[in-house]
Design goal:
Layout: E1 4-11, H1 15-27, E2 33-36, E3 53-54, H2 65-84, E4 88-89, E5 93-97, H3 103-116, E6 126-128, H4 130-136, E7 144-148, E8 152-154, H5 156-169, E9 173-175, E10 180-186, E11 189-194, E12 197-206, H6 212-218, E13 225-237, E14 248-251, E15 263-266, E16 272-275, E17 279-280, H7 294-301, H8 304-325, H9 327-335, E18 346-359, E19 369-373, E20 376-381, H10 386-402
């Protein structure tokens, strides 16, 4: 049977793949666009397992792709949600320094946020003292804090489903239950073998998230990084104690580690989450502590960069595993931000897995990483704030295709 032909085929039905498809069908309405997703629904993994935060852009190095896309992406996401009547709450957040040694890093966040244009999202972005912190979050305590009024919460699954609906209305196709198995260049076309048959495309975009490195290798791309999965585990605050948190409360992150530390997050659908930690997962879609894949684990452990990373971060890694196993240790970390929180206030919540790219030198890639290999574009590292910036990332990917 002859392969179905498309102008553009996108592998991965998360929010990045879908946003790219929406931009493609808008920009090139006469082109045939197909998204293939291996699960039976869109947004099944990273998009559907994150904290639902609309990030403001204060963490990222000025000039980086994250910095360039986050503030613009947040504004675009707000406009998209309002245009389509999707749930959105610009509740604001505070980043709290609880120790003297954290104050320089907090000042650096203020500098970065200012350089990245965070004040453009909402007025009031400022360093504040403990009195003002208490006015915003009465149960939080700290030496100083950074108030970020433009931070919000939403439901990225609802957003992704709306984008998929728009893709279909604009003439594109989204096929779920369709796993990419291989890619072969044949003249001016790329043949994509899937569990639902073969498709031919002039251009292919790899937005496979947790499996993006494997798709890249199937396509013959030369990359010096792999995806290492990190699980983030959450607790939920019991309903009768949710008034301890009014908005979002974050710690000052460790600048050497690409994770933000355990924090408090209100959810758009109700409730308050505490977390996540960041522990090595032994399966790429390992949302439970007991999930294990021999192939995924061997991919991680046989990569020389993993052991170089472990040598640098072993102490932080052990701390994260300890918090994973000990609720008491998890609560102690939370009590730095909200001293009144107790073990009895928390019950087990959900978990997500972050697709974090790691290079051979043991460096956790900090910025978004897009690699163009002829008519194939590989989106190889798009961790947080990718959901926030997804609409803008989709535009940038399509700029590469157009060029």
């Amino acid at each position: 049977m002859a392969a179905s032909k498309f102008d553009l085929l996108i592998i991965g039905g998360g929010i990045i793949g879908l946003a790219t498809a929406m931009e493609a069908t808008r920009r090139f309405p006469r082109r045939k666009v197909l998204v293939v997703e291996k699960e039976d629904r869109v947004a099944a993994h990273q998009t559907g397992h994150n904290s639902g935060v609309l990030h403001s852009g204060l963490y990222y190095k000025p000039g980086s792709l994250k910095a360039k896309t986050c503030v613009e992406g947040a504004a675009a996401m707000v406009a998209f949600c309002r245009e389509h009547g999707l749930p959105l709450d610009i509740c604001g957040k505070v980043v709290v320094a609880t120790r003297d040694e954290e104050l320089p890093a907090l000042e650096e966040l203020h500098r970065r946020g200012t350089a990245n244009g965070v004040p453009n999202l909402a007025p009031g972005f400022a360093m504040i003292g403990p009195e003002r912190l208490r006015e915003i979050e009465p149960h939080s305590a700290g030496l100083r804090a950074l108030h970020v009024p433009g931070t919000g919460i939403l439901d990225y699954v609802v957003v992704a489903e709306k984008i998929a609906e728009i893709v279909a209305k604009q003439g594109g196709e989204v096929r779920t239950g369709t796993t990419a198995l291989g890619l072969l260049r044949r003249g001016t076309e790329i043949m994509v073998e899937t569990t639902k048959g073969a498709f031919a495309a002039r251009s292919v975009i790899n937005c496979a998230g947790l499996h993006s490195d494997r798709i890249a290798r199937l396509a013959g791309a030369q990359t010096d990084s792999i995806i290492v999965p990190f699980r983030g585990e959450y607790y939920e605050i019991v309903p009768e104690r949710q008034d301890l948190v009014k908005g979002l409360i974050y710690p000052v992150p460790d600048p050497k580690f690409p994770f933000l530390g355990v924090h408090f997050t209100r959810r758009i659908g109700g409730g308050v989450e505490a977390g996540p930690n960041a522990v090595l997962a032994f399966r790429r879609e390992g949302y439970r502590k007991t999930d294990f894949s021999f192939a995924d684990t061997m991919t991680t452990f046989s990569f020389p960069g993993f052991w170089r990373m472990a040598a640098k971060y072993w102490r932080s890694g052990l701390d994260e595993f300890y918090r994973s196993l000990s609720k008491r240790a998890f609560v102690r970390a939370l009590q730095r931000l909200v001293p009144e929180i107790q073990e009895s206030d928390l019950r087990p919540g959900g978990a997500g897995v972050r697709a974090q790219a790691l290079d051979r030198n043991g460096r956790l890639l900090d910025d978004f990483h897009l690699v163009q290999d002829g008519a194939v574009i590989h989106v190889l590292n798009v961790p947080s704030p990718a959901a926030t910036a997804s609409l803008v990332i989709g535009r940038k990917i399509m700029d590469l295709v157009a060029d």
